[in-house]
Design goal:
This protein has nine helices and no strands. The protein is mainly alpha-helical.
């Protein structure tokens, strides 16, 4: 019963959220701020994680596939496809669920317990539309930039391994990441990331919007937002993989 309760209340909140903004100029201004706060501010952590994951993936693949029957470009090929198919969309979204999701839930939750949302409602403002829609729009719009940036950074990290170690030559690595490239993998990753961005921002907003109580409840809302966003990301990852790659 609790599941149906939350699904119903979430659906009603999204219905309120996706209504026509009362002031378009203010909406675009808020959306731009959210793009900067939720998207652009996530670039450093995306860069750091992607470079190290790309490097580690290249090292692990090379050290565990030392087989004379395998072509020398296998490491670059495996690193590229792993980054495109899973890390740069699914794993990166799970990481951002912790950063962006907790940020959204704690911000809206603090506004709820300090009665700022109640004040907006009393003034006749659609608080869900005013607070949540710019966050969802901003994050969904910017997530493809993060994904493409992550792809590039991960491949650069792998190239750094080939450049500064003797595990694999740069020529073999570059040939591997170019060999049998399937452009659809990039679009597949971008489609998944847009869905995951909507899940992260909307679920975090839901838990923050209904965080009644005190500071402890804001913390619980942030935790619930991250946990449930992660579960939904894994679920939809399975569904989208089935739909888009079969």
């Amino acid at each position: 019963m609790a599941l149906f309760y939350h699904v119903g209340r979430y659906s009603l909140l999204m219905y309120k959220t996706f209504s026509v903004p009362q002031r378009w100029k203010l909406y675009f201004k808020q959306t731009w701020k959210e793009i900067e706060k939720l998207g652009a501010d996530s670039l450093p952590i995306t860069l750091l994680i992607s470079v190290f994951i790309g490097a580690i993936m290249t090292m692990q693949t090379q050290m565990n596939t030392e087989n004379p029957l395998l072509p020398r470009y296998t490491t670059g090929l495996v690193t590229r496809d792993t980054l495109l198919l899973e890390f740069c969309s699914s794993i990166l979204s799970l990481i951002l669920a912790g950063k962006v999701g907790s940020n959204i839930a704690s911000e809206i939750g603090t506004m709820r317990i300090t009665e700022q949302i109640d004040a907006l409602d009393i003034m006749g403002v659609n608080s869900a539309n005013y607070l949540i829609l710019p966050k969802i729009t901003g994050f969904v719009v910017f997530i493809p930039v993060l994904v493409v940036f992550s792809m590039f950074s991960g491949l650069v990290g792998g190239y750094g391994v080939s450049l500064f170690t003797d595990l694999i030559t740069p020529a073999n690595y570059i040939y591997g990441i170019q060999y049998w490239f399937i452009p659809w993998y990039v679009y597949y990753s971008l489609i998944k990331s847009v869905v995951f961005a909507f899940i992260i921002s909307s679920v975090a907003s839901y838990y923050g919007y209904y965080a009644y109580g005190g500071a402890l409840d804001v913390g619980k809302a942030s935790t619930n937002a991250v946990v449930n966003s992660s579960i939904l990301i894994l679920l939809f990852n399975l569904v989208l993989t089935k739909l888009l790659l079969t």
